[in-house]
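As a warm-up, study this chain.
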Amino acid sequence: MRTAAIFGATGLIGSHLVQLLTHNNDYQRIFSFTRRKPESIPDKVEHIDFNPNSISIPNGIDDVFICLGTTMKKAKSKEAFLKVDFDMVVEIAKQAKISNVKRIVVVSSLGAETTSNNFYLQTKGKMEEAVKKFEFEYCGVVRPSLLLGNRKEFRFAEKMAIVFFKIFSFIFVGSIKKYKGIYAEDVAKSMIMLAQNGKGIVTVESIILKKIADGYSK
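Now compare it with the structure written out below.
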């Protein structure tokens, strides 16, 4: 029986992780790290107040899932964006290592690259490199394309992009197939599969995430 910790449990991917792990018989306990306590919590889930300035992970956790992320519009500055998408993520990975966590799965982004001219993708690339240096028994970095699903917050540009992807999904073939949108639930399913079965340090692109998710049967 496994235990899991989810950071970013109220987000689009994180909320699916909570639901999937709650119904997954391989997991007996789930720690949900959020700033605000949800209105309802499943029996297997234990809420932990997330304090970005004092991150601590209980001992005995098998799998850590990091789904933190913001946008430049919401962060309003590069410094604030870095605080969430780089500093917090790396600090969580560090604390996971200190707590002897063996397996970790982190959400990044399709196109992440340390040398990218795009600040967002460059930050994601640097985050990936920093997390991998902790040398977990297993470290999976997932790179989803545009996330499909219902967010609690409204993002106009994202909504328009989702409509486009749904209408013209048939054109995403060949070399551009990797840019096809992916449902957040499928990303969550693939993350669980990777945490349970992955080996070494791997980076998994969106198109592969969908294939892994198709094999989820819990």
